[in-house]
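Suppose you are handed only two things: the residues of a chain and a line of SMILES describing glutamine. What would the bound structure be? This form records exactly that question and the answer produced for it, so the two can be stored side by side and reused later without any lookup.

QUESTION INPUTS
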Amino acid sequence: MTAVKSLVITGFGINCEEEMAAAYHLAGATADIVHLNEILLGQVSIHQYDILNFPGGFSFGDDLASGKVVSNKIKFKKLPSGKVLLDEIKQFLADGKYILGVCNGFQMLVRMGLLPNTNSDFEPEATLSNNNSGKFEDRWVYCKVNNAAQTPFLKGITQMALPARHGEGKLIFMDDEMRAKVSKEHLNCLTYCTEDGVETAAYPANPNGADLNCAGLTNPTGQVLGLMPHPEAYLSLYNNPNWGQIKRNNPDITEEGEGLKIFTNIVEHIKAQKLATV
Ligand SMILES: NC(=O)CC[C@H](N)C(=O)O
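ANSWER OUTPUT
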């Protein structure tokens, strides 16, 4: 009754679906990895699930722009019902459910208009472009949580080290007004920072030069979280190349990776919601 069910989308070059599913298993949820076509053909309904997940990867080889083709399929390809998947996703959110996108998945959510979605009209309000460095950045970064951000995914987290691996991570808001609105409403829920937790625009701590030093966004209701770094790739302390040093400095540290908390947070949150309604 209170089992939390997550749906992890794959296909077309998405390549982080197994890690994403492993994260949900460790967090105590079920995870079904489903090809996007199964959903577009009406064989699987997103409404059977509590959390919809868009993992990272290179969908359609980043052709046109990263995440662009998948987001267009979701916006424009007709399901057998005659609706488009974005209509179903709007219903999914109206039902109080949750969506997570990581890296290529974050890029899809931005291009679908799910993030930041300040006006709740699902019109794209930002885009992603090539990293300022002009190259693919593949290394660990630090990001800090905006304490004023309202999303259960980030509850109790202040800062995380996470792996980043992307070429198009530079988030750019539509205009100054949008940038100010996102900032004022604390939708820039994660920002790149130094190891000491100081937000920074400076390379390399900020790997891409994103507006507002943004590493992740949430929507105004907090139901949608998207981030460029990969929490599903930091499920165990031993994923961190500095684990030896970390353990020496803090011998009692948990052996969980800092990324796992995002998954346990949302699974526990949904479990509590389900218990409250039985
Ligand atoms: N790891 C990823 O999901 C990469 C996203 C995208 N292919 C990029 O390079 O920007």
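WHAT STANDS OUT: Residues 56-58, 62, 66, 103-104, 165-169 surround glutamine (CB under 6 Å). The two ends are 8 Å apart (CA to CA).
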